[in-house]
Design a protein that fits this description.
The chain is α/β, with parallel strands linked by helices. It has one domain: Rossmann fold, CATH 3.40.50.150. It has 8 helices and 7 strands; from the N terminus they run H-H-E-H-E-H-H-E-H-E-H-E-H-E-E. The protein has a 7-stranded mixed β-sheet with strand order 3-2-1-4-5-7-6, sandwiched between helices. Helix 2 packs parallel to helix 3 and helix 7 packs across helix 8. The mean pLDDT is about 95.
C-alpha cells in the first residue's frame, strides 16, 4: 500500500510531503533483494514509514537503518528532544517487529562506521552546513555503485542544505538527476 493510501502514514507528524513520500517509497521498492536503505534523521518516522513500506511491498528482504541520535537540533534547542524517540518507535512498531526497520540511536558519523554499504541513502538530519556536507561526503563513499542519494530540504527554506549540496556536487563533478518537491536525487554511476 502506497503512503498516500495509508491511514497510518497520514497520522505521523512531519514535513515530508505526499509527493516526496511516494518518491521515497518508489526508490525503496527499487532497492534490490537484501539491499540496504540508510536514513539520516528520522524525527517521528514519517519518511522511515514511507521507506519501510516500499521495502515491505517489494516482496523481497530489505532493511532500513533509521539513524537519529534524538539529541535535539543545534539550530533550534529543544525542538527535537529525545521524547520523540517514543513517538518514532510507536509509529514504526510493525516494521521494527518485522525487522524491516532497525533504529540506530546514534549520530550519522557513528553510523557510517558500521559499513552499511547502502543502495539508497536519504539525508534529512542536521541542517547545519558542515553537518550536511559531512553527511553527503561520508555517505556518498558508502553508497554502492548505481545507488541513489536523496537529500531533503535541498530547495526553498533551507539555504544551508542547498549550499552544501551545491558545493558537494561541484567538488565531485556530479549532477542532480531529479528533483521531487524539496528532495534532490543523485545517482552513483559505476565507473
Amino acid at each position: 500500500m502506497r503512503p498516500s493510501k495509508s491511514a497510518a502514514f497520514h497520522q505521523i507528524d512531519g514535513w515530508l510531503s505526499i509527493e516526496e513520500a511516494e518518491a521515497l517509497y518508489d526508490a525503496a521498492v527499487a532497492v534490490p533483494e537484501c539491499g540496504r536503505v540508510v536514513e539520516i534523521g528520522s524525527f517521528k518516522g514519517r519518511s522511515t514509514y514511507a521507506l519501510a513500506l516500499g521495502c515491505k511491498d517489494s516482496g523481497v528482504a530489505k532493511v532500513v537503518y533509521s539513524v537519529d541520535p534524538f539529541t535535539g537540533n543545534p539550530n533550534e534547542p529543544g525542538f527535537f528532544p529525545a521524547e520523540f524517540k517514543a513517538d518514532h518507535d510507536r509509529n514504526l512498531d510493525q516494521f521494527l517487529k518485522e525487522g524491516i526497520v532497525v533504529s540506530c540511536v546514534m549520530s550519522s558519523a557513528g553510523a557510517v562506521l558500521h559499513n552499511h554499504k547502502p543502495n539508497l541513502v536519504f539525508i534529512d538530519g542536521s541542517h547545519v552546513y558542515e553537518d550536511v556536507l559531512f553527511d553527503l561526503t561520508a555517505w556518498w563513499r558508502e553508497l554502492v555503485p548505481e545507488g541513489r542519494m536523496a537529500v531533503h530540504d535541498s530547495l526553498g527554506t533551507h539555504p544551508t542544505v542547498a549550499d552544501a549540496l551545491r558545493d558537494f556536487t561541484k567538488a565531485n563533478n556530479l549532477q542532480v538527476e531529479l528533483v521531487t518537491g524539496s528532495i534532490s536525487w543523485l545517482r552513483k554511476v559505476s565507473k
